[in-house]
Design brief:
The structure holds two protein chains of two kinds. Chain A has two domains: 1-66 and 154-165 and 184-247, P-loop containing nucleotide triphosphate hydrolases (Rossmann fold, 3-Layer(aba) Sandwich); 78-152, no CATH class. Chain A has ten helices and nine strands. Chain A has helices at 43-51, 88-93, 97-100, 108-120, 136-150, 166-181, 193-199, 216-219, 222-237, 239-242; strands spanning 3-14, 17-28, 32-36, 58-63, 71-74, 154-158, 185-189, 202-207, 209-215. Chain A has a six-stranded mixed sheet with strand order 5-6-7-3-8-9, with helices on both faces. Chain A has a three-stranded antiparallel sheet with strand order 2-1-4. Chain A is globular. In chain B, α4 (68-92) packs antiparallel against α5 and α4 packs across α10. Chain B contains 13 helices and no strands. Chain B has one domain: ABC transporter involved in vitamin B12 uptake, BtuC (Orthogonal Bundle). Helices cover 83% and strands 0% of the residues of chain B. By secondary structure, chain B is mostly helical. The chains are: A alpha/beta, B mainly alpha. The A-B interface holds A 51, 53, 69, 71-73, 75, 79-81, 84-87, 90-91, 94, 97-98, 101-103, 125-126, 129-131, 146, 150 and B 39, 157-158, 160-161, 163-164, 166-171, 173-176, 178, 222-224, 227, 289.
Chain lengths: 247, 289
């Protein structure tokens, strides 16, 4: 199987302080991978590196056969202005950006696809509601609908299930498994071990440096988790080496 | 009665018709920009930039007196310098954008008043600060109408990226490279409309016709389109009533227009159905789908 994403001696960080250090591993094409690790382990930073919004301090990321718009990225929820008066339909339709760009028209066919995506995440009937009137779970459903329309080869999700209800989580996991079935590569930063064990075949454990990467049952062990916490604490006590505190 | 109060001033006096046309042009051009300023929580940025235009207009005045072209050009240049300058300071120093903007506009305002008052009379200073809506000539009207048309056209062009830049900037950056260009174009629109407004209402009042109708409209409308329509309607109503008040009671017209807008804003604050004071205290009825 061809490699989709390769991290080569990758160091990422902010203002020259590394948050991810000397990462050397590969994500297989079509794999469904959970990224886990203690707080401050560099999980979100790694996704930002993949989107290209953060340039490596050292090393590089090899992304084969993918253009920038083949990558879809769902950041943590806080970045959306929910008081902005935009409807669910309009927000979701922006997933078509690759096709419509800044000026293109949303034709009848495309509108049908937008409605299909909204129905697929269980938001039928909410099309004309303002995003400010939605609950956290409903917003997340709308953002998944937008991801569906982005039709990306590589999907990056940062804490997609934080602060949402169980039913929504189950539905959204269904969408992720559908992507996996379609052969897309999915990387998700997650906290909950149970979710990772039951739905994510591969796991990458990070504590600034790589702790372990492989099949979930071999990676998500108590020894590895203990080691990851220790590595992060060690980093926190020597901030001149590792940068941001682990808290 | 109605004729005398509302129509005769415009029917009998050419300067009132010109003033109304000038105000409508400014209202149509500036209110959509004001709505986006408000939605992006940049209302005070608009205020700061309107003051920043003053020294540019003043230098134009210094060079060629009360000349339309020179003062327009000076205002545009000064506005862009301050907009870019504050962005630059915020990016490359530890100072936040609001603080750097405040610093730049205070300097500009002082400089502008100084330049106008050393070279001109107090009357000129009042013209620059409070505008000359009752003395708009043909060239000024053409300028105001062209700026308003251009502003609407550009806004229509950047509408989608601008909405996205406001609602979900991170998503826009992830799908396109237009984020910075959109922000910059939007700032240019703000400056352009402030310079147009300055000819009619003066540098101190120009931002009023941009922000007050938008803030009032927030209490009446939910969507962006309806917000813009409501804001433009409120701006038009304020211009009309303000001009009539200033005609019948010999009030300075710029402040009269802005004060009417202020009254509409205050009424909206209490009676507006979208989150107004009264609507919020009444028991809420919820419609869940």
């Amino acid at each position: 199987m061809s490699t989709s994403v390769a991290f080569k001696n990758l160091t990422l960080g902010y203002e020259r302080l590394p948050a991810v250090q000397q990462l050397d591993t590969e994500i297989k094409q079509g794999s469904l991978t959970a990224i886990v690790g203690p707080n401050g382990a560099g999980k979100s930073t790694l996704l930002k590196g993949l989107t290209g919004s953060l340039s490596p301090i050292e090393g590089h990321i090899e992304v084969s056969n993918l253009r920038a718009d083949d990558i879809a990225y769902l950041p943590q929820q806080s970045e959306i202005d929910r008081s902005f008066p935009i409807s669910v339909l309009d927000l979701v339709a922006m997933g078509l950006w690759r096709e419509i760009g800044a000026f293109g028209q949303v034709g009848r066919k495309m509108r049908g696809r937008v409605e299909q995506a909204i129905a697929a995440v269980g938001l039928r009937g909410f099309e004309s509601r303002a995003i400010g009137s939605l609950s956290g779970g409903q917003i997340q459903r709308a953002l998944f609908a937008r991801l569906l329309l982005q039709d990306a080869e590589l999907v990056l999700l940062d804490e997609p299930f934080s602060a949402i209800d169980m039913k929504t989580m189950a539905d959204l996991i269904g969408i992720i498994e559908r992507w996996h079935g379609e052969g897309r590569t999915v990387l998700a930063v997650l906290h909950d071990d149970t979710t990772v064990r039951s739905h994510f075949p591969e796991t990458l454990m990070l504590a600034r440096e790589l702790v372990a990467h492989g099949p979930t049952e071999t990676v998500l062990t108590s020894e590895n988790q203990f080691r990851a916490r220790q590595m992060c604490e060690a980093c926190a006590s020597t901030p001149h080496v590792c940068g941001k505190s682990a808290a | 009665m109605i004729w005398d109060l509302f129509l005769a001033p415009f029917a009998d006096f050419g300067f009132m018709r010109r003033a109304l046309l000038g105000c409508v042009a400014v209202a149509v051009g500036a209110t959509p920009v004001g709505v986006f300023l408000m939605l992006r929580r940049m209302s005070l940025t608009g205020d700061a930039m309107s003051h920043a235009i003053l020294p540019g207009a003043a230098i134009g005045y210094l060079v060629s007196g009360l000349s339309l072209g020179a003062m327009t050009l000076g205002g545009l240049i000064a506005g862009m310098v301050v907009a870019l300058g504050s962005g630059f300071v915020a990016r490359f120093t530890t100072l936040r954008e609001d603080a750097s903007l405040a610093a730049l506009y205070l300097i500009s305002l002082a400089l502008g008043v100084l330049i106008v008052s050393t070279r001109g009379s107090n009357v000129d200073l009042m013209h620059v600060l409070f505008g000359t809506v009752l003395a708009l000539d043909d060239a000024s009207l053409v300028l105001l109408c062209s700026f308003a048309s251009l502003s609407l056209l550009v806004l229509a062009l950047i509408y989608r990226p601008l909405v996205l830049e406001c609602a979900d900037p991170q998503f826009l950056r992830s799908v396109s490279k237009l984020s910075a260009a959109t922000h910059f174009t939007f700032l240019m629109l703000v400056v352009m409309n402030l310079v147009a407004g300055f000819h009619a209402l003066g540098t101190l009042m120009a931002v009023g016709i941009m922000i007050l109708p938008a803030a009032a409209a927030r209490f009446w409308a939910g969507g962006i389109g309806t917000l813009i329509a409501a804001a433009a309607a409120i701006a038009f109503l304020s211009s009309l009533s303000g001009l009539l008040l200033s005609f019948h009671y010999s009030l300075p017209s710029g402040p009269a227009i802005i004060l009417v807008a202020g009254v509409i804003y205050t009424l909206s604050l209490f009676f507006g159905p979208e989150g107004g004071v009264i609507a919020q205290t009444l028991p809420r009825r919820r419609f869940e789908t």
